[in-house]
What does this fold into?
Amino acid sequence: MSKIVLRQPTLEDEAQVMNYKKIFEENFQSFDGCAGLEDVKDYSDWLDFDNRLSQKYGDSYVPSTVYLGIREEDNKVVGMIDCRHDLSDFLLKYGGNIGYSVLVDERRKGYAKEMLRLVLDKYRKEGKSKVLLTCDKENIASMKTIVANGGILENEVVDELGLGNSGTIQRYWIEL
It folds into this structure.
């Protein structure tokens, strides 16, 4: 696997991020960890995370930090990861602290596992003791990524909102 780094998006990332969106739309992919990228037409609107998402979610909005997973050798955005600082009731049941995604043609290369590992280090430095991650029961790749980073399955909940494919959300805690 090529080395990747995490960094927050900047104006210089516009072309790659909007191409990321296009690829996800064309492949009917779920925009996990993309901080509402699917909802915007304009990159500058996407970058205004706090204002846009607090308007969308109201009192249940939880601030987060979005990172791009960038392959160092060619500076390509291969993934995104969204790190929520706290848990709302919705996030506690369904979404967790962390959401992530990887471009379709960059999957099965270890990028999600590495992005999650790097983000867990950031949570440790902030003094967090544990984080929650969730995934659809049928999303074996995400489950393996979570478990490889120390995730312990707490339980499964019925996906009453139709967020995934299986009808079941798995909830994993990672002790930091």
